[in-house]
Amino acid sequence: MQHRLIAAFLLGVCMACCGCDAAREPDDQAYIIAVGVDKSDQKGMIDVTYVAALPVAASEGGGGSGGGEQQKITTEVTFTAPSLAETRNLLNSVSYFFPTLTHVKILVMGEELAKQGIGDVIGPLIRFREYRGTNYVVVAKGTAKNFLKKNKPGIPGSASRYFESMMETASETSYYLKTTLHEFYLRLKDADGTSYTAMVAVNPQTMEDLAARPRISGQKTEEYYVGDIPRSSSGANPVEFVGTAIFKDEKMVGMLTNAETRSLALLTGKYRRGYETLEDPLAPKHGINVNLRQGEKPDIMTSIVDGKPVVHITVYLEGEVTSIPSGINYEKAEYRELLEEAVSRITREEITHLVALCQEKGTDIVGIGYHFRNKFQKIEDWEGYAWPEKFPQADITVEVKCKIRRTGLMWRTTPKQ
């Protein structure tokens, strides 16, 4: 009898402790989908912008598919405070919804803050349980506040879908690369490589051509920094994802163009596919389009000669010809080899340029240092080698091997009659 009473008592305690006091209805919560952090004009302070998804009932108040102004499905608010934690408190003070950060998709750092150093911002995010390691991290040219304010995706459905789609489709061209909070933090703490993130900006849409540097011989396309792509459209979203912010320790030390970012993807094995437009080797006034993909991961061979690191990188490409305006039969073996050599040369020059830029900035964003670890028996010996100091003096050579595997829907090109 006594055992039955004890069991009944324990059952009652368990039932009392399993209540739903902490539960909240979805419509009672403000889902933060993006956070922007900028350097403040006030010393020791930061400007933090939150973008929240509005509940369905709130977003149905105006507009509609039949015309007029687009429905507003998000709202933005900016605070100035000494820390992210304090802005979290302030956010709760101005919203009758309960703010939750568990659905944040992207963290946007302002350019000025990134150049100053973002270690004090990134560190607390890793520790705070509401932020997830899968959150994407980008750097905004200008301010994060302006980027989030001007961003008008114009797509139906979830307000967070835009950020997810943009980052997940980065591999379609490799003109920008996705980086998660977890990946960024690991590289930030690791001396074997340095961090990088995608760049975002608001494009003025003036159609002004602001090419970043002269084209490589034989190349038809220009390369651009984020915000400089010549484009103009009515009512389109003015923001763009292009290029890469490169870091040394916790500070941003430079930007990469779209072409330089593609070279980074090739060196890190993250390149999926993309188009290359080059001069026709036998008729330079015409262009040839080749759809390229990475045949296999790059081969990075390392050695140490008289204390100096020596690196040879081999990149493998496979291509499909998608356009031959000149009508020359590049399907023939001897002509196909000319095209393969042209693609290999242009790609090699692009990658060599990127390597030289990284060595000049002293930042190993490729992660070449990881390939030297096996040269040392103890981690203490590897740390004593001081790779960050050795990297700028490393002897690095690049080789590109391209094979044209397919010729589209035509097996032989004939000249125009």
From TrEMBL:
Top-level taxon: Bacteria
Protein name as catalogued: Spore germination protein B3
Keyword Translocase recorded: no
Family to which this protein belongs: Belongs to the GerABKC lipoprotein family.
Amino-acid biosynthesis recorded as keyword: no
Keyword line: Germination, Lipoprotein, Membrane, Palmitate, Signal
Domain annotation Spore germination GerAC-like C-terminal: ranges: 243-408
InterPro entries, sorted: GerAC_N, Spore_GerAC-like, Spore_GerAC-like_C, Spore_GerAC_C_sf
Gene3D superfamilies: Nutrient germinant receptor protein C, domain 3
Domain Spore germination protein N-terminal, residue spans: 24-200
